[in-house]
Amino acid sequence: MRAPVHKFFSYYKPYLSLFITVLACSFITSFVTLVFPLLVRYITKDVLEGDLSTALGEVYWVGGLMLVLVAIQNISNYFVDYRGHEIGARMESDMRSELFAHMQKLPLSFYDKEKTGRLMSRITNDLLLLSELYHHGPEDYMKYLVRFVGAFTILFFINAPLTIAVFCFLPFLGLLALYFNKMLNKAINKNKERIGDVNAQVEDSLSGIRDVKSFANESVEIGKFNKENARFLESRKHTYKAEALFYNSFETIIQLITITVVIFGSASIVVNTTLDLSDLITFLLYISFMIEPIQRLNHMSTQLQEGVTGFQRFMEIMNLKPSIENSSNAIILPEIQGEIEFRQVSFCYEEHLDSVLQNLSLRIKPGEYVALVGPSGAGKTTLCSLIPRFYDAIDGEIFIDGINVRNIDLESLRKQIGFVLQDVFLFAGTVMENIRYGDQAASDEEIIAAAKHANAHDFIMNLPNGYDSEIGQRGVKLSGGQKQRLSIARVFLKNPPILILDEATSALDNESEKIIKSSLELLAKGRTTIIIAHRLSTIRHAGRILVLTEDGIVEQGTHDALLARDGVYANLYAKQF
Ligand SMILES: Nc1ncnc2c1ncn2[C@@H]1O[C@H](COP(=O)(O)OP(=O)(O)OP(=O)(O)O)[C@@H](O)[C@H]1O
User: Helices 277-318 and 160-167, interaxial angle, to 10°?
Assistant: First the structure.
């Protein structure tokens, strides 16, 4: 428990002096507020009931003092409102950056399980609520503590029995708060989960909007969204019900307190004159100072609950250790030859799932062009994902140039490997920015050279703004072939010694395929290349073809040798032609 508490408060550290100033201002504001009813009492009791010949002068004097106090109070309050919020916003921004950076380090297996929309909810909504707690929390506690203690002390001196009678109501309020606390906490947590689900649904639906439209499934998506939206509404209704019950029970007790003061106060004026009228007025004025903190307890406890659950959700992610990390003595790879070796490698995505690869051994020589074929789901993509450590093997070892990939610095390892996939992902931005993704340090000239190698330069020059053309979200403004050529240009720029081509041309028409094939051939030159292919016609020329089935690599050899063998490959080939 200590560690999270320490972590919670650690975000104040960079802003400590500003934070203390804000707290001091909050103290001044509350203190000044407490003084006002005393000044009113002084005028009504001591000045107006005393020597009236000097009264006017004293009233002016007290009036002047009030003006000065008003100025002090509002300047302090301005500082609290402005700089207090700023502290909260800065802390929120620090935490958001930390969370995003941490998420970048989490392995793909984490993203396989999590919904993007839910994660977005954690980065935005949860932290927003947390920032409210960070700045309003201490400010409010300071403000209400000063008012409560101050009001109690002053009232005690005015009339002790009446003050104690009022005080007797407070345990009931405390018990009520405890009772509702758990209920509210649960309801708030549920709200967060449900808004996360709504976000996830929106993310899913909007990112697949083309498919939604092509299947004319708008009404299906609306139905799915409405279902999540209704679930969110239900959980909010539940929260409001709990809050309304909480608030109104409080309100009833508070009204009972006021009635007690009016009745017992008036009675003591009539019966034993221990109280006079100005005392009763002062009492009623201060009662609100004592009641207000209790009234706000509801709001403050909600704020606390929301902030704490926001922090717990933040820590849930922050506590996830990136399972794929650099080892303590990770090696930065020098220039490599590109040899790849799998030794007795086994892998499954999750413990309860079947193994995808079992005891697989394989050696690919530097510069070799190897094709990986086999039935769908055999594990071709999985095998390639293990080389850059997108996932770690459960058993066995993988080597690059004789060095175990687990001992290689991750960034240095991934720099050695270029991927060209069928499903190209481009970022919103310009053509230039997207190609530069391959090498952030590349000059414009190098980017243009890479585009030329990828047969992309001509179509880029025909775009309205050439290399500065915006390509839209995920590159929607480009054709499939154009996107593919940009992704190849990116890899040319990266210039890795190992290349993995996963179904890179299977979604293209003949014309685009021809262009892209020629640039891929150029790209593969001098690099160790693994090409995953379904269409066997595209890999006939491969130096070696590996046939992967659920039993592992069952055949390997050249196209002609495998046909002559009349086994799995020959069978697959016969089916396609
Ligand atoms: N992220 C994942 N989480 C869980 N299981 C997965 C994941 N990715 C793939 N699988 C499963 O692992 C097995 C191998 O998948 P993989 O994508 O490697 O096969 P493949 O041979 O490349 O198939 P295809 O030729 O259809 O692309 C499949 O049964 C698949 O369902």
Answer: 30
| Chain center to CA of 509 | 40
Protein residue with its CA nearest to atom 11 in ligand 1: 377
CA nearest ligand 1 atom 1, residue: 112
- In this structure, which residue's CA is closest to atom 5 in ligand 1? 349
Residue 138 token pair: 């201490």
Closest CA to 421 of 508, 495, 522: 508
Q: What are the pLDDT digits (tens) for 474-506?
A: 787 888 888 888 999 999 999 899 999 887 666
Count CA atoms within 13 Å of residue 518 on its CB side.
9
Strands of 279-392, DSSP E: 340-347, 357-364, 369-373
Tokens, residue 234: 């239900």
Is the CB of 112 within 6 Å of ligand 1? yes
Measuring CA to CA, which residue among 495, 357, 483, 341 is closest to residue 422? 483
The DSSP secondary-structure symbol of 374 reads: -
Q: Which two tokens stand for residue 560?
A: 């002609």
> For residue 109, which atom of ligand 1 is closest to its CA?
1
Note whether 175 and 307 are within 8 A (CB): no
Among 112, 356, 373, which is best to mutate for testing ligand 1, by the most ligand atoms less than 8 A from CB? 356
Structure ipTM: 0.94
- Tell me how far apart the alpha carbons of residues 302 and 276 are, in angstroms, rounded to a whole number: 40
Look-up of token digits 């406890």: 301
CA 38-42-47 angle, 5° bins: 170
- CA dist 389 → 190, 394, 399, 433 (Å): 36, 12, 11, 26
Give per-residue pLDDT as tens, 385-421: 999 999 999 999 999 999 999 999 998 999 999 988 8
